[in-house]
Amino acid sequence: MAHHILLVEDDKAIATVITEALREEGHDVTACDSVSRRDALLQERSFDVMLTDIMLTDGDGLATIGKVRNVAPNMPVIVLSAQNTLDTAVRASDSGVFEYFPKPFDLDELAHAVRQAVANRPAAPQADLDEAEGLPLIGRSAAMQGVYRMITRVLRNDLTVLVTGESGTGKELVAEAIHQLGSRKTGPFIAVNTAAIPHELLESELFGHERGAFTGAVKQAIGKFEQANGGTLFLDEIGDMPASAQTRLLRALQSGRIRRVGGRQEIGVNVRIVAATNRDLTPMIANGSFREDLYYRLNVVPIHLPPLRERREDVATLAQHFLGQAEAEGLPRRSIDEAALAALTRNDWPGNVRELRNIVFRLALLARDDVIDQATVDDCLPQDFGADDTASGGGFKLALGEWLTAEKPADGTVYHAALAAFEQPLFEHALAATGGNQLRAAQLLGINRNTLRKRITELEIEPVRYARRN
Ligand SMILES: Nc1ncnc2c1ncn2[C@@H]1O[C@H](COP(=O)(O)OP(=O)(O)OP(=O)(O)O)[C@@H](O)[C@H]1O
Predict the structure, then answer these.
(1) Looking at ligand 1, which atom is closest to the CA of residue 277?
(2) Disulfide check for 386: which of 208, 377, 390, 408 has CB 3.0–4.6 Å away?
(3) Residue whose CA lies nearest to ligand 1 atom number 18
């Protein structure tokens, strides 16, 4: 059976000989000569086996194997090395590589080792996690394989998990998958979005309150912790939690007990915590807005979801999946052609999978034909300021230049008019990316939420138009 092999070797003659020998065996071989190229290729696609030299022009192929493991945890690695020292062999076996071949080596033996490596490869855990099981996590990119592998590691225990990643990358879905596949699946799954609850109500929401605990507490209420007893509590946007709630949460995590607001009694709860954040908590810890001790309590098992633009190979599969969902929700049945999928794949998706889902639903609704084509995609995608020249913003400069010559107001208010012309699509884009959530849109733009509110009112943008459909 043909396998896809990544060969990392900077000696051209050796690379050619190995490539030819493995191609004769019927394998596909992609060769490269540096650590950086290796890492780039691993991001682009998955390989069945990697063969690597150690001494490469830009680094040590073995010392950097951790990076390979992060993206391709199950891929067997065969090390080829001219440094026939014990130290190299020990380093190779310590790194968990499949085989170590001191140079010069026998090509038949190498071909045999490749066959063995593929045959002994640990089963990819994703098989348990994709649609086959009725679970919603889609995507077979190397990056998602790493996520699946981490998920499988927490299914047989109750370790606290911290899911990080930009808005819309699927953090809540990961929490649901952990719950549904783990031993707590028969218990409740309770999700709390910390950012969506006013600060003064958050503690009562999480821990409940006794009657009379505060004005308006007319009767006793059970909080999310107690509701999640025996199951999983998903704490979304943990970075938005005010200090007093952080302290209370830390105490609950340390003791496994909670106290309702205004209550005296401590109540034991059996809850698995999965927390999530789209913010970088490190600077928040440094400036004192997030408790360091709470961070360590939550970050027992970190799972990072890369942004969609770093796993573009998943875009087409996700788009097809969402077309199916759209149809199931009563939208017209559509298919999509290759060029349209390629256009979706090229887009940068600042709002990640959520934005892709929203656009696919819009496409299903608006397409003039049964088959969605590229023109329809181009119409639906938000204005791309720098498509041709993102690094320098050249496309954007061009667009502004055109706007200046074509639409320049005559009354000398160019600056304000230009700002408005610029802000309108920028805010619309941010709102589309965050499903209409103004707080997140403000975070995405790095501006104050009140500033955003004020400007969108002035510009007559309606955030509800971008409201989440899920
Ligand atoms: N891998 C995936 N496969 C299928 N659907 C996905 C995937 N990732 C995300 N989605 C879909 O994208 C949308 C956003 O996902 P989700 O709410 O889990 O993101 P999030 O990271 O928790 O966002 P936020 O930080 O804004 O809360 C949902 O509709 C979800 O079903």
Answers:
(1) 25
(2) 390
(3) 170
CATH of the domain at 406: 1.10.10.60
In order along its 470 residues, the chain shows pLDDT tens digits of 678 999 999 999 899 999 999 998 888 999 999 999 999 999 888 888 999 998 898 998 888 888 888 888 888 888 887 764 555 555 665 666 777 777 777 888 888 888 888 777 654 444 344 443 445 688 878 888 788 878 878 888 899 999 999 999 999 999 998 998 888 989 999 999 988 888 888 999 999 998 887 877 788 889 999 999 999 999 999 999 999 999 999 999 999 999 999 988 999 999 999 999 999 999 999 999 999 999 999 999 999 999 999 999 999 999 999 999 999 888 889 999 999 999 999 999 999 999 999 999 989 988 888 999 999 999 888 755 444 444 444 445 555 566 566 655 556 566 666 677 778 888 888 888 888 888 888 887 878 788 888 888 888 888 877 776 44
Q: Which of 176, 280, 354 to mutate to test the pocket of ligand 1 (most atoms within 8 A of CB)?
A: 354
Q: Is residue 389 part of a domain?
A: no
Nearest CA to ligand 1 atom 13: 354
Same domain, 97 and 17: yes
Token pair, residue 74, equals: 């199950």
Determine, yes or no, domain membership for 266.
yes
Give a yes or no: residue 388 inside a domain. no
Question: Are residues 138 and 269 located together in one domain of the fold?
Answer: yes
**3 CA from centroid of ligand 1 (Å):** 32
Specify whether 114 is located in the same domain as 151.
Answer: no
pTM of the model as a whole: 0.61
The reply to whether 98 and 74 lie within a common domain is yes
**Do 232 and 331 fall into the same domain?**
no
Last residue of a domain, one of 120, 137, 156: 120
User: Do 154 and 298 fall into the same domain?
Assistant: yes
Number of domains in the chain: 4
Question: What residue ranges line ligand 1, CB within 6 angstroms?
Answer: 136-139, 165, 167-173, 236, 276, 278, 318, 353-354, 357, 440, 470
* Residue 314 CA to ligand 1 centre (angstroms): 13
Verify that 402 and 447 share a domain, yes or no. Answer: yes
Task: Give the residue whose CA is nearest to atom 6 of ligand 1.
Answer: 170
Domain of 300: which CATH number?
A: 3.40.50.300
Residue 48, domain member (yes or no) = yes
CA distance linking residue 191 with residue 287, whole number of Å: 28
